[in-house]
Design goal:
mainly alpha; 4 domains; Serine Threonine Protein Phosphatase 5, Tetratricopeptide repeat; 70% helix; 2 strands; two-stranded antiparallel sheet; 1% strand; 406 residues
Amino acid sequence: MDFESWWLIFLPLLFGLGWMAARFDIRQMLSETRNLPDSYFKGLNFLLNEQPDRAIDAFVEVAKLDPETTELHFALGSLFRRRGEMERAIRVHESLLSRADLPVNEREHAQHELAQDYLKAGMLDRAEAAFAALKQTAFALPALRALIRIYESEHDWPRAIEAVESLRTLVSEPVPQLVHYYCEQAQAALLAKPPRMDQAKQALEQAKKAAVTAQTTGVSASFVRVAMLNAMIAASENNLPLQRECLLTVMDQAPEYAGLIAQDLLNNFTQTQEENQGLAVLQAHYQKFPSLDLFNVVFRAARAQLGADQAWAFARDTLQAHPSLLGLDRLLEAELAQAPAGRSPEDSPIPGADLTLLRRLIHKHTQRMDRYACRTCGFQAKRYYWQCPGCNAWETYKPRRLEELE
């Protein structure tokens, strides 16, 4: 009973202390609110009224009046960058970096934001220097990824490879495009005047090792590219058996890419006076894995080796099984290119038909379908690319024309 009375003495005291603490918090909050510039509340009001441009102007005024608001500076800089106002974004982040009292973590953050500004503005030399300065910071990983993109756009493959190796020390993840970096080096060596064969072979050896390290499942486009470059080296050294082996490996292990190497394979058989066997190989492959590019090579070869009647018989059977305006356009083009001069419509494979007029009408509608398309960004191109020119992604093109994908 004495204990309970003693406890009741403190109840009013505790209540009074709580009341005083609440009053102090309220006064502090009101004091802080009064210290906020009017522009801050104007900016909030503009945001609520869906007037983003006027809100930005108001927040810029707040940043000018109170330079200590680093978070507001970061928010404004990012907003300017998203809106494409790169000069304003750069100015905001440069003003942050000019502050001598900026903490290390916020300085690194500002440096990373400024590097992104430079990159989006297309100022690659400044972006490269800004990202390189972040290699030993908390932003090392995104900085290295950005440097890789920069080196890719500049086709600076040695530095791209170096950046990938640095990236591997931070994260244990495969980098499939590393194979293509070495392939780019090999291709450049092959196309040099004169060709640098030793450098090309060394680059391809590195590409094979990178492909093993990448641990890609199945047969990828990079495997096809390595095989095609090995075939190019063999052809330049007049090693026809090795060239044929490389090309047949593509047809066997990556049959959907046959259209990319069909003409080279046919030329290989022709050089050894085995063009009939080469045509038979391509025809047999087409029966299992039809594609427009392969059809074009087979029809032209059949037209040259077997004559118009057999070539057109193959074309009719093919178009009945796989109807294609683009395929019809291709065979009309080949037929007109090989037809004797002065041939009348009655002597054409389609008696009475004006093949020139027919091809002109069809070609007008097939031009938009005669393209490859990137699966990532939709960029369309008449030639096949290992790296999309639109979004710079690797291995996003299927070896099939648009008509075949629809």
